[in-house]
Amino acid sequence: MGNARVNTEFAMRLIKLFLVILIMIFGAAFAVLNSNLVEVNYYFGRQDIALSLMLTLVLGLGVILGALSAMARIVRLKREIQTLKRRTDLVSKEVNNLRALPLKE
């Protein structure tokens, strides 16, 4: 049983390695196919940058901004979960206290 787990972990590592190598090959091909220079104008000047580098930078910036916005939402939801847990605990305590009261006949 332990041997099967080791084999599964080894297979997963091989799959991950294969995917990383595949992504690197696609990245290299992308850089070669998009090696043209593009002119980037910004407030303080102008720069000629390879198209592949520019696309990679913009993609990276998009990933970072997307992750930040997702993290803000996750933090907000975790805070809401904590508030709801506190309310649930209070209601549970109240129900237990009401159950402990003697019935008046």
Per DSSP, what share of the residues sits in E-state strands of 2 or more residues?
5-15%
Largest beta sheet, briefly? 2 strands, antiparallel
Stretches where pLDDT is under 50 for at least 5 consecutive residues are none
Globally, the shape reads elongated
- Order of the strands making up the biggest sheet: 1-2
List its traits.
single chain; 105 residues; mainly alpha; two-stranded antiparallel ribbon
Account of the 3D structure:
The protein has 105 residues and is mainly alpha-helical. The protein contains 2 helices and 2 strands, in the order H-E-E-H. The protein has helices spanning 2-33, 51-100; strands spanning 37-42, 45-50. Strands 1-2 form a two-stranded antiparallel ribbon. It is elongated, with a radius of gyration of 28 Å. The model has no long low-confidence stretch (mean pLDDT 88).
State the gist of this model.
With 105 residues, this protein is mainly alpha-helical. Helix content is 78%, strand content 11%. A two-stranded antiparallel ribbon has the order 1-2.
Write the layout of secondary structure elements.
Layout: H1 2-33, E1 37-42, E2 45-50, H2 51-100
